[in-house]
Amino acid sequence: AQKITQTQPGMFVQEKEAVTLDCTYDTSDPSYGLFWYKQPSSGEMIFLIYQGSYDQQNATEGRYSLNFQKARKSANLVISASQLGDSAMYFCAMNSGGSNYKLTFGKGTLLTVNP
Amino acid sequence: SQTIHQWPATLVQPVGSPLSLECTVEGTSNPNLYWYRQAAGRGLQLLFYSVGIGQISSEVPQNLSASRPQDRQFILSSKKLLLSDSGFYLCAWSTGDTGELFFGEGSRLTVL
After folding, report:
1. Beta A88-96 vs A74-79: how paired, if at all?
2. CA distance readout (Å), A29 to A92, A99, B18, B105
3. Exposure letters A81-115 (e unless 16+ CB within 10 A, then b)
4. Which uninterrupted H or E stretch holds B49?
5. A101 contact residues in B (CB cutoff 8 A)
6. Which of A108, A55, A48 minimizes the C-alpha distance to A78?
7. C-alpha–C-alpha distance, residues A54 and A61, integer Å
8. Percent of chain B with pLDDT over 70
């Protein structure tokens, strides 16, 4: 079984600063994918970034980067130059090779960006 | 481009009433389809997924059912709603490559 843990229920960051949202995972499958989603107050789920377990380099998408530490089973999201519009819930998720149809989500971290 | 829509966006239903949430995907064929539920302040729980017409897998025993009558249509139903069915329901699709999910706008259900 696969499991995602997000230990930070809430985080605060000043506008224009960087912030790291923690995510650890557990799976026995050597092939898996890691995802981050953003959920604003409107409720829609917005895909941010993807990291495959065999990817050698950390994934980056604009101001988002994924700090992938395979040995530690962590996949932290780094948001650089925070903006007020980054205030939202952030979910870490994973699938594994044997069940790539299904994503397992963590409980989320509520990020608040202060002006 | 691919789009996904679900409706209704909001509904308030009495306990014991039926439910039907509908989701359709455009711009792709043979997608994998999913229904997730999000309880207030919590993560997403997978309810059902489908890899093809008429093929439904249930993840948790519950008061709900799902059907896929057409390739790009996914329906979530209940014959008799319970208070515990309240929540935010999200439909999603994927191509099955990396497994990245694309979500609909969500349907907020309140059972009174």
Report:
1. unpaired
2. 18, 10, 40, 32
3. ebeeebbbbbbbbbbbeebbbbbbbbbbbbbebee
4. strand B44-52
5. 32, 49, 51, 94, 96, 99
6. A48
7. 18
8. 96
Residues 52-81 (A) with a CB less than 8 A from some CB of B: 52
Q: Distance between CA A84 and CA A112 in Å, rounded?
A: 8
Q: What is the pLDDT of residue B96?
A: 64
| A84 in reach of chain B (CB within 8 A) | no
Structure tokens at B84: 């515990």
* Cα angle value A37/B61/A5 (rounded, 5°): 35
* pLDDT over 90, % of chain B: 75
Span A54-82, pLDDT tens digits: 998 999 999 999 999 999 999 999 999 99
